[in-house]
Specification:
binds adenosine-5'-triphosphate, 7% strand, 2 domains, mainly alpha, binds L-tryptophanamide, Rossmann fold, Tyrosyl-Transfer RNA Synthetase, 14 helices
Length: 335
């Protein structure tokens, strides 16, 4: 590590291998990961342990973890410059999570909206992992003394509990963890479903027309955007009651860099047909280089394994330092 790398602020984020990421994951999180990779010392993980909470088929989990790893590299992340790894390859995550469990109150974990939503949606499998999910996430972040955590707006509450857990541990045992800040991009913070723009676009939505997958073919992207729910006003402007158009404007803005007033001007006097065509073309152009790189990488399993090994080694070197510090502070007898 040279001096410049050492001085850079630390960024950590992770994504679960629960399916191909959507345009929402991309604009809300992954695009920022790539943008931050030049200016910060970045660590990015595939959160495979987190996804065990939804009990995936073992062969699906294995395949999806590899696919998600290839997706991260296909964003243009350099595995030498950045640390790109698979969470379960660094055992310190689970070890620190246990210690942090003991600094987390039952009541504060029970207040997490994601826990409440997921247990309501899947009453047949409300496992304890789902409950302590944010504590494992706190371990992911605190192990690397991260300064910033790029996430979509839906993960903000988990960042807040991470900060609370870290502050509590620091107060009880002495300064151990850096208190991380969330990094939430403005426009892509929450991309909404194309079919129900009151709800976020989600890769686990049963209706595939509601989301654009990052690996959808160009013609599928065009079709999905053309059938996106809008309103009957037929004027491209940002406003109340225009959730569908607001969402498409957000997507278009993220892909082209144009501001909302610029977009309104561009489509002044034009209908939704023209607007949707332009949004579709912008999304297709945005995802094309990524898709090409992904198709190349997914066929090179040896290269992926080599990068994952390097990532795990680099991550472990940092993680072991913080874990030992926390163990020592908490009074675990060390030899
Ligand atoms: P699932 O639908 O399987 O629960 P998800 O699509 O919400 O998953 P995650 O793996 O939980 O995706 O999230 C990965 C990252 O993408 C997180 O930082 C999250 O905040 C962000 N993200 C997820 N959905 C959106 C969205 N619709 N808009 C913006 N960001 C999003
Ligand atoms: N819970 C996050 C994924 C995640 C994460 C993290 C994000 C796991 N560990 C650490 C940021 C930092 C999610 O579902 N989006």
């Amino acid at each position: 590590m040279d001096n410049t790398t050492e001085k850079k602020k630390i960024v950590l984020s992770a994504i679960q291998p629960t399916g191909t990421p959507t345009l929402g994951n991309y604009l809300g999180a992954l695009k920022n990961w790539k943008n931050m990779s030049k200016d910060y010392n970045c660590l990015y993980a595939v959160a495979d342990l987190h996804s065990l909470t939804v009990r995936p088929e073992p062969q699906d989990l294995r395949r999806r973890t590899q696919e998600m790893y290839a997706i991260l590299l296909a964003l243009g992340l350099d595995p030498q410059e950045n640390t790109v790894f698979i969470q379960s390859h660094v055992p310190m995550h689970s070890e620190l999570a246990w210690i942090l469990n003991c600094s987390t109150q039952f009541g504060e974990a029970a207040r997490m909206t994601q826990f409440k939503d997921k247990s309501e949606k899947h009453p047949e499998n409300v496992n304890v992992g789902l409950f302590t999910y944010p504590v494992l996430m706190a371990a992911d972040i605190l192990l690397y003394q991260a300064d910033y955590v790029p996430i979509g707006a839906d993960q903000k509450q988990h960042l807040e509990i991470t900060r609370d857990i870290a502050e509590r541990f620091n107060n009880v045992y002495g300064n151990t963890f850096k208190i991380p800040e969330p990094f939430i991009g403005k426009v892509g913070a929450c991309v909404m479903s194309l079919q129900d723009p009151m709800h976020k676009m989600s890769k686990s939505d049963p209706n595939p027309k509601s989301y654009i997958s990052m690996l959808d073919d160009d013609n599928v992207i065009v079709k999905k955007i053309k059938s996106a729910v809008t309103d009957s006003e037929a004027v491209v402007r940002y406003g109340e009651g225009k959730d569908g158009i607001n969402n498409l404007m957000g997507i278009y803005s993220c892909c082209t860099g144009k501001t909302f007033p610029e977009i309104e001007k561009e489509f002044d006097g034009k209908g939704y047909g023209d607007f949707k065509q332009a949004v579709a073309e912008a999304v297709v152009a945005e995802l094309r280089p990524f898709k090409e790189e992904y198709n190349r990488l997914i066929n090179d399993k040896a290269y992926l394994a080599e990068c994952a090994k390097l990532g795990a080694e680099k991550a472990s070197r940092i993680a072991i330092r913080t874990l030992s510090k926390a163990q020592k502070k908490a009074g675990l007898f060390q030899i």
